[in-house]
Specification:
Blueprint (H helix, E strand, L loop, with lengths): L20 E6 L5 H13 L3 E6 L3 H4 L2 H8 L15 H8 L2 E7 L1 H8 L6 H8 L4 E5 L3 H5 L1 H12 L3 E2 L3 E4 L5 E5 L3 H14 L10 E7 L3 E2 L5 E2 L6 H12 L3 E7 L9 E6 L2 H12 L4 E4 L6 E3 L20 E3 L3 H7 L7 E8 L7 H12 L3 E6 L10 E8 L5 E7 H13 L3
Parallel strand pairs: 1-2, 1-3, 3-4, 4-5, 8-11, 8-13, 11-12, 13-16, 16-17
Antiparallel strand pairs: 6-7, 9-10, 14-15, 17-18, 18-19
Helix pairs in contact: 1-3, 1-9, 4-6, 5-8, 9-10, 10-14
């Protein structure tokens, strides 16, 4: 076992004395093989993982595989090691229970409190955060019975992430695919890090924008910016970990879809505006973490603009793009919704970073403004961030340099206090 986090993660491995105890429940779906990668990531990042597969899950992946990857015996039924009372102890001692994949049958049994195997017994005795990652065919996920069971589990405080869309078994494609193991790992670590059994954004719909828009000059060239989308994606992951229904409007971002998040892909500022305004109509909160281009060409060439023989450069005529944040703040479909903007600022002779940011907050009319100092290109593409959260109705909240996930939770803390 190594003591480092999997490649690409910004999560540090827990110290040996602090190893969180995770129960990985696996129910009987073809996506059970993906849970092997999730288990590897959890164990290699220092978590103490107990795998509890259902009898059906063992038809897809055998107990020796789970044992080899977890480094400990696999609990498979209530009759093994009876003197240790596993059907009670496993759930009582867990810091997190994650079921991945969670089939329609497992969700139904969990929702109705059945305890006919070790996994459902564990779910009944757990008093820690519980996360279900459903995986099934689209028709099964959309069936009223499944949706009712999901609603029951969410009402009781469980996090039930939305399935991903994509290729299912056979030739079928649709919603019902298990999110990628790397994203489920990030979700698990996020939930563990907060240590809160009840998700505080449950029942809320939030919209997050991420990335940078592009305004095309011709079929090849465009005006753009350096936004990577990392902070927006961290916001989406954090909201999902806190139980929210999340719509992520991603502008030219190539990051993997966060687990349980609906992703809408856009390119230009006009597309970003349309997608955000449409999604915001039913949202409790909107966080504009994307970097829309301020200007666009008045005309787009249908052919690639060629170099002139005399060495001269073409003249670009630009026009201003719509101000999406101002429009969101001024014309709210739901007056009680919370609108959050971002300000990438540098100081100059006319004012400091915070002075510019306060003026922008007043001008835009949003409830919160997250201010980044981007002098010298800081923040862009970095896994870390620091900021000051300005409120229209309160004192500024400084957030020390740390992971973008930490800043995301600081922002949601402020939003939650206003909902």
């Amino acid at each position: 076992m190594t003591d480092h986090a999997p490649e690409g993660s910004d999560q540090a491995a827990p110290a040996p004395a602090e190893r969180p105890r995770v129960v990985l429940g696996v129910s009987g779906g073809i996506a059970a093989y993906k849970a092997c990668e999730l288990l590897r990531r959890l164990t290699e990042s220092g978590h103490d993982v107990t795998v509890v597969p259902t009898a059906s899950a063992l038809e897809f992946v055998g107990a020796p595989t789970w044992s080899a990857l977890s480094g400990k015996p696999v609990a498979t039924d209530v009759w093994s090691n009876v003197h240790e009372v596993p059907h009670v102890r496993i759930g009582q001692q867990a810091d997190l229970v994650m079921v991945a994949p969670a089939t329609a049958d497992l969700l139904a049994r969990a929702a109705h409190g059945l305890a006919d195997d070790l996994l459902t017994n564990t779910l009944l005795t757990a008093r820690c955060p519980v996360v279900f990652a459903p995986a099934m065919h689209t028709e099964m996920w959309e069936h009223p019975a499944t949706q009712a069971n999901v609603a029951i589990l969410r009402e009781r405080g469980a996090v039930v992430v939305e399935p991903a869309e994509g290729r299912l078994t056979g030739k079928d494609t649709g919603k019902g695919r298990l999110p990628e193991p790397s994203e489920l790992f990030e979700l698990a670590v996020d939930v563990l890090g907060r240590g809160v059994a009840t998700p505080d954004l449950a029942g809320r719909h939030v919209v997050v924008s991420a990335g940078g828009t592009r305004e095309f000059l011709d079929p090849v060239r465009f005006l753009g910016n350096r936004s990577s989308g990392l902070q927006g994606y961290a916001l989406a992951r954090a909201a999902a970990a806190r139980g929210a229904e999340v719509t992520l409007v991603a502008a030219n971002v190539t990051l993997p879809d966060p687990a349980g998040v609906k992703v809408v892909r856009v390119s230009t500022t006009a597309e970003l505006r349309d997608a955000v305004l449409s999604s915001a109509a039913a949202a409790d909160a909107v966080v504009m973490a994307a970097a829309p281009a301020d200007f666009r060409p008045t005309a787009v060439s249908e052919a690639k603009i060629k170099k002139a023989d005399d060495g001269s450069a073409p003249t670009l005529e630009l026009t201003q793009n719509p101000d999406i944040l101002l429009e969101l703040s001024s014309h709210r479909s739901r007056p009680e919704s919370v609108v959050v903007g971002f300000a990438a600022e540098t100081g100059d002779e006319s004012g400091t970073i915070l002075e510019h940011a306060r003026a922008k907050l007043a001008r835009k009319g949003c409830d919160l403004l997250v201010v980044n100092d981007v002098s010298g290109g800081a923040v862009f593409g970095s896994p870390e961030n620091e900021a000051v959260i300005l409120a229209a109705d309160g004192e500024p909240v400084p957030v020390a340099r740390g992971s973008k996930t930490a800043l995301a939770h600081a922002i949601w803390d402020q939003v939650r206090g206003r909902l």
